[in-house]
Design goal:
The protein is mostly helical. Helices cover 84% and strands 0% of the residues.
């Protein structure tokens, strides 16, 4: 969500800059203003440039997020995942990864499972349509011996991803 806002604000800034340059070109009659008038008379090239730049920015941002999530999912150090979650609290994937870390290190300790559940629920709140977040919550409830809530989240997981066999096997 935050990334989309940045793209829109950059597009608005770019459009404002083009508008200012166009106004300058209309007001003055220098060599530069003639070049700007020529450039502005070819809107298809400008639109293509904006579209290409925007797509490149989207690709780079998505790649960076995926690489970070991949790195954190393979990393054994829980402190790195905590830091990433603290620095980017609106990233559901970081909350999910932190939750999974707490589960893997919990050895059924109630305090660790409680922290895991907090982060799992935060991930599901930030991205309610991701089926793996509801499955994670169901598994944590099951580990805590709370089978009623676990069943509710398994059902939610089945609703979100009916073709996934993991929820049927665990349910």
């Amino acid at each position: 969500v935050d990334f989309n806002l940045r793209i829109h604000s950059n597009a608005i800034l770019f459009a404002a800059a083009i508008g200012i340059l166009g106004a300058i070109a209309v007001k003055s009659d220098s060599h530069i203003s003639r070049q700007i008038k020529i450039a502005l008379s070819r809107p298809s090239k400008i639109i293509f440039g904006v579209a290409f730049t925007s797509l490149l920015a989207v690709f780079l941002a998505i790649s960076a997020l995926e690489n970070t999530a991949f790195f954190l999912s393979k990393k054994e150090n829980i402190a790195d995942v905590k830091t990433a979650t603290r620095l980017s609290p609106l990233n559901a994937e970081y909350h999910y990864l932190l939750s999974r870390r707490y589960v893997s290190e919990s050895k059924k300790e109630e305090a660790r499972l409680g922290l895991a559940l907090i982060h799992a629920k935060e991930a599901a709140r930030l991205n309610p349509l991701n089926h793996k977040y509801s499955l994670n919550i169901a598994q944590i409830f099951q580990l805590r011996g709370m089978y009623g809530p676990a069943e509710e989240y398994y059902e939610k997981h089945i609703e979100l991803d009916p073709g996934n066999c993991h929820s049927y096997l665990s349910y």
